[in-house]
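[audit] Reproducing an earlier prediction to check determinism. Same input, same settings, fresh worker. If the tokens differ from the archived copy the diff job will pick it up downstream; this log only records the rerun itself.
[audit] input (792 residues):
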Amino acid sequence: MICRQDLILSPEQLAARCDPDSFSFETTKELKKTPIELIGQGQAQEAMEFGLQMKHDGHHIFLAGPGGTGRTTFARLKTEQAAVKQAAPADIVYIHNFDFPSTPAFIEFPAGEGNLFAAHLEEMMNEIKEEINKALTGDSFEQQKMNMAQIQENELHDKWQELEKRALDQQFALDKKQQGVVAVPLTKEGVPHSEESFQELDETTKQKIMEKSKILTKDVNATLRQQQIMRRSIKKKWQDAEELMVGRAVYGPIEEMIEAYTGVPKAVAYIENIRSEIIKKWKTLFHEKDEKNRGDIPVIFSVNVLVSHKKEQGAPVIYETYPSYANLFGKVDQKPVLPSLETDFSMLTGGALHRANGGFLILEAAELLSHPYSWQALKQMLRSGLLRMEALADEAAGVSRSLLKPEPLPVNMKVILIGTASLFDYLFQTDEVFRKLFRVKVEFETSMDRTFRHIEEYAAFIAYICRRNQLLHVHKQALAKIIDYSTRLVNDKRKLSARFHLIAELLMEADYWARKDEAAFIKAEHIKRARNEKQSRTNQMEKLMQDAIDEGTIMISTDGKAVGQINALVVSKRGELSFGLPTRVSARTYVGRNGIVNIDRESFLTGPIHTKGLHILSGYLQAEFAQDDPLPLAASITFEQSYNMVDGDSASSTELYALLSSLAQIPLRQDIAVTGSVNQFGDVQPIGGVNEKIEGFYAVCKRRGLSGTHGVIIPKLNSRNLMLRNEIIEAVEKGLFHIWAVSSIKEGMEILTGVPGGERTADGLYEKQSVYGMVQQRITAMVNKMKKIDRK
């Protein structure tokens, strides 16, 4: 006889089923190709729009939610929608700083004009080089230089001739040697004196010759100085003439460039600096004797276009998947020039922050935190409002090895971090700077209401996935299966899952099986096979456990009755797969004051939540049966053949059933398994994994043969979580399997024992032939026995 049939759930209550005929189409191919927005995230969309439109400091965004719900797709979609409404930011061009070469400067140009400026500058420099070479190598300029040199040489020649004549009049000749010019005394015959002939002269004559020599040497030295001055003068005249010619050569191109960029003052100043530099150093810059270098434009007269935008594309949206310091903040490259390394402004490479400036930057929070220097530098940038670039020898050490310190850029961007809710909570609690910078939290839902509108949007989303991934389209019967699968993912008949990556994964695998069948569309059987095949690839542990139960290695009874023994239901998780299994819970009770001893806890095999559940159970027993006398109870309770850590309170009602059975000495049905937690008032509370638990016990019973009495007791509040497989629903329809939904421990005991739970009578005692009455009688006997022991 099936007890408490009023608590048995009907087949219709065991799952929500989507009706394929509710769709107005046969396949998703008929659905229009419309842009897909994220489904069921209305609150998140409002929060995101607020964050994107808020321009005040500190209103950067943290998008919090579990992975696989489309967080990144949502973030990119929303920022791109906001970005197209904004103007494209300025192009960033770095230049050589002529005053401080180690501090490259930047110039901002309207979007799209940075590369244009670079091209114009290159054209200007080529034109200047050509004009300078033309001006300085032309016949007229060379003839002018020759004329100037000839005039100087003629003047010098006249001076030396005059000096030589004067020397000859005084019987001297000027001997021009490599070491200089020497006045040499002559004999009366007009030949230079030898050492012997000079010594033969009388002292008066030698003295006169020496005095004349001194005067002539002084005049020679004066003439030599004049010669040096004249040659320096002519060199200066050449230089002045060359600078004049260079100035004339650069004037046209420079003035044309200045006129083109009058609206960019820093560009005009840079062009003026180029003019000055060329005029001062044109020879070393443009007039190399080495033919190999003569055609090169010096790098200091070029620019480094660090960031370029297209005017019509709006603000940039950058999604950086690997936020290392270099990828975010750019880098300063170096080249080996023995014995050291060299660098300059042309070796600056921009990072994601440079590209995102004036727009939006999207980062994965966990990945960012795995690069601690990046995280700290990002916060510093957002606080200071300046984007600095430096080279790092070692990111972990944060040591700079570059001699360059580029001029920092003003920052104007919105940063969006994507992460879990727990990561947001951790940062919010531990990082004060984070709290000040990321004030907008966008919370992502993991589920949505199972409304007709959301089901229609789900269908459109599935059509989009099929088109994007070139999958076969989905027949409406298969679509209904997917909708039900989505509900199963959240274990709530009123909801649909927002974990869209699992839906996409199911579609891809179903597409594989459909193509194997050479089908035109994905059908319901392909969805079913995809789910079954995936389970068979990952359920080896479940099979091993089921085999152990079948062999009797794991002792589970599915028929008969036993005192103090009951089938609990647990969920085991292995990778992606969660599966339910029965496990035996046993309880023994006896006279004593030790209370309830949890054998698993004493063996350090339980967690704190399970321990809490046991304390609640104990509180319930004392409130029910120890109002007049202390409870003289000693009991032991355990999960049989369990050697792994046990936690959670979902078996606390099961443990209480076993204890009550042991106290009342009433046997419990072994063809029923139980799950549910209990509070101190005896109410049965909902638990997780209810579908897996039911399916796990059903599988054991099916393998042994369904008797028509097998079933599971679940909390009534878990009824809305049921999304059972069709096989189980069909077994319920045939009366081969039953699912009871209870609200209290008494209801559960009535099902398990076939005995009324019991109500208190006028004297405050429970009815004698009820479960609670028998428990009360046993406890009264224990009290009396304990009093006798105490008297002894």
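[audit] rerun output stored. Observation attached for the diff report: Confidence is low (pLDDT under 50) at residues 288-294, 394-400.
[audit] end
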